[in-house]
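Q&A FORM
Asked by: J.P.
Topic: structure of Allosteric NADP-dependent malic enzyme

PROVIDED:
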Amino acid sequence: MGLDEDSLDYHRTDPPGKIEISTTKPTNTQRDLSLAYSPGVAAPCMEIDEDADEAYTYTSKGNLVGVVSNGSAVLGLGDIGAQASKPVMEGKGVLFKRFADIDVFDLELDESDPHKFVEAVKMMEPTFGGINLEDIKAPECFTIEERLREEIDIPVFHDDQHGTAIISGAALLNAADIADKDLEDLEIVFSGAGASAIATAKFYVSLGCRKENITMCDSSGIITEARAERGDVNEYKQQFARDVPEGDLADAMEGADVFVGLSIGGIVDGEMVRSMAEDPIIFAMANPDPEIGYEEAKEARDDTVIMATGRSDYPNQVNNVLGFPFIFRGALDVRATEINEAMKVACAEALADLARQDVPDAVVKAYGDEPLQYGPDYIIPKPVDPRVLFRVAPAVAEAAMESGAARTEIDPDAYEEELEARLGKSREMMRVVLNKAKSDPKTVALAEGENEKMIRAAYQIQEQGIAAPILIGDESEIRQTAANLGLDFDPQVADPSVGDYEEYAARLHDLRQRKGITRTEATDLIENDSNYFGSVMVEQGDADALLTGLSHHYPSALRPPLQVIGTADDVDYAAGVYMLTFKNRVVFVADATVNQDPDEEVLAEVTKLTGDLARRFNVEPRAALLSYSNFGSVDNEGTRKPRRAASMLQDDPEVDFPVDGEMQADTAVVEDILEGTYGFSELDQPANVLVFPNLESGNIGYKLLQRLGGADAIGPMLVGMDKPVHVLQRGDEVKDIVNLASVAVVDAQQD
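REPLIED BY: S.T.
REPLY: Here is the structure written out as tokens.
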């Protein structure tokens, strides 16, 4: 099927459309319903009646945006009317929810009169925390937004005007930086003089460009003062009329530094690009066909052409989704009365700064593993980059507070944690560990230090203040890779080939001489195997923790630290633990990587170690020893092992958290089963530490939960070692390395 057929099938699949309403509170019992509606609902109604601001406390108003349109100017479709525009408005709601966890009601108003439109929206002000105007034709859109901003007390934002302005403004900040040009000196030409073009030109002035350097062209040519005097242009275009000779777009582009296209496709040719100033900046944003094609613009010049379009199949897509969800997120969270110019500028500057940072692996993968590094082909972040939320929303919120638009103050540090929680429980849980790590950073050795991911992780670990990383490997290669990646940091490197590490070889020989390792072999391992080198470094106290395994099979990466560092004095067995996070639940799964067929003593020790790990994440453990049997319902050697392990733990005075078993998995995690059928259990709430009876079941279980249950997995976290060691999985992303480095630092803080 083609795109149209696929889209029709996508939209009509039951249930039709793309959005629905879901409840956020329990509705399972009669009491739940009496609280949700009559008679209990009267209480919050009375509170709001006494103080209207309490609507933000007791209703969804503070996270609800109205996407409002009359369908008079739908992108690429024109005036299709209110009803036909509904799929677009629903789509806008999807983007709000996906990128910023904002709920939306889409409202399609069958009204072309701007004054009646305004009155209709005004009447709905009590429902919403903000209004996003969408796909309303010019010049009516100017009147509607201006009046609503003046007459209602919640943020109003016409994305067609300001979205492109803000995102292309971020691109302009970086393009000018790369081209080494000052904003105030840029000669800028606009093709198009509609709502988006006028808003974009005004916004560029807010960023620092000079109004007198902006030349705007409509379908009749350059907008000049002479045309304005003749009444040839409307009042909105007149503000950009210049005292220059009349001419066409080609005349305007001659000698220009920047071309901004918000008009129609194919109206710019290579000769017009060649007439521009050196290292030109071209934003050809007409959709679906830009004013000039990407390849044609690039090939027209021998110097650097910095090119952006509105298309996703070329670099530097100017995509409004980089702006409106996060602008509203920041505005809603400080209960802003408006979205003002300072908030828009803050958004653009935050986006520009983010494009200069190292790009997460998940973002690179989403775009076909194409290189994404600050430069002419990467001047604005990608929409799927989760960091946009954490950079833009706080910047917008802070600008709202500083400019007087905010009705409530927020703590910037706490706010970032709240935003992370919106993206999932795993980010919320990792924030606990990250904060602990930053409170007392340690030194973390990174084996496989020449690996690009390890270098990027080291940069982030150091930049965030999590730890002092040491990259193990060839120093010249590491530094060259860091430079190629554009990472502005001076890494600490331990190069076994040039440093004096004779004592490391001696120590390895001393530890392993009765295990068949000769002195010569020990020297060779130190010089050529970063896992042994890093293990001895940590064992000797020259680093506090070790991360390895990125390019090795798990067993081969685990072997050196087990041989050199070993388990803790009071521990006989190490284990691999995954933290699995669901929307409203966290569970720790063990053992998933180390012990193939544990007996009851191993199971008991693994349970204790996993409980200790849970507490590092501020989770109070409740442990279940899993089986296919419930409390003796099946009696054989396999079911007796977890049963005996549970009994050993219950009798251990050092175990100060509830443990029970053997039990089936659903018994462990479903409260009704646990409290109903098995009310005698030591667990009075569902378990959050799940100990599997063997490695096979543990590995299968965590992967099924991750892939089919939609859990986010953090790990494997190695517990039970004498010094902190964590073995990565091959193919882990940079964020996984940073996360495990944080866990390793918190481990080291316990010593």
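FOLLOW-UP: The chain has a mean pLDDT of 91.
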